[in-house]
Amino acid sequence: MDRTDAEDGIEVEISDTQGHLRADPAELTALIRNVLNAEGRRRASISLALVDQAAIHAISRSHLGHDWPTDVISFPLSEPDDRVLTGELVISAEMAAATAAEIGVDPGDELALYVVHGLLHLCGYDDLSDPEAAKMRLREGELLAACGRPNPFDRIGNVTGRTSLRAGRPGREADAMIGPSPPPRHQSEPSPWSR
To answer: Fewest CB atoms less than 10 Å from the CB: which of 32, 84, 131, 135?
Structure first.
């Protein structure tokens, strides 16, 4: 477990239990802080769990009722407008590595996309409708560019029908969010990674 407290008011805790993708905790922490600062969130406590397919599949099944793996699940532990944003992201690094290989992008860029996407959910963005998804995709691209990362969507765009992180890919479901983000879409449940 890698925990970083910061003078900037953004605390980041990272757990990496997978062996499919080497992830630099310092880079991930910087990415999280940059995204939250860009979103005007100066105080936050974010937990990031990098897991494999089996782990995210089990979480997807128990918390979403889906019997398939996904790429990122966001657990908001505060409301988007609370003074301190608190939440947990569970990300399949194994899926990031596999998808990156499939579409010909750097695995770190695919992982960064998942992190940005999950953070935007914690900040109140949603992608359940086409207009919301378009707004979210645009913001993802802006944030990735501001952090010096290419957007994997730019590489493939909608040519392959990829309009959400996993749309159109057999056996893969679009990302999911659990919690009180307005409007509530799923019943809030305690995260399996809660401290």
So the answer is: 131
* Total tally of structural domains belonging to the chain: 1
State pLDDT tens for residues 132-146: 999 999 999 999 999
Domain extent at residue 104: 2-177
- Tell me the two tokens of residue 23: 């992830």
Residue 192 included in any domain: no
Q: How far apart are CA 144 and CA 179, in angstroms?
A: 25
User: What Å distances lie between residue 30 and 90, 118, 148, CA to CA?
Assistant: 18, 15, 12
CATH value at residue 163: 3.40.390.30
pTM above 0.90, yes or no: no
pLDDT tens for residues 9-20?
A: 999 999 999 999
Q: How many Cα neighbours within 13 Å face the side chain of 72?
A: 24
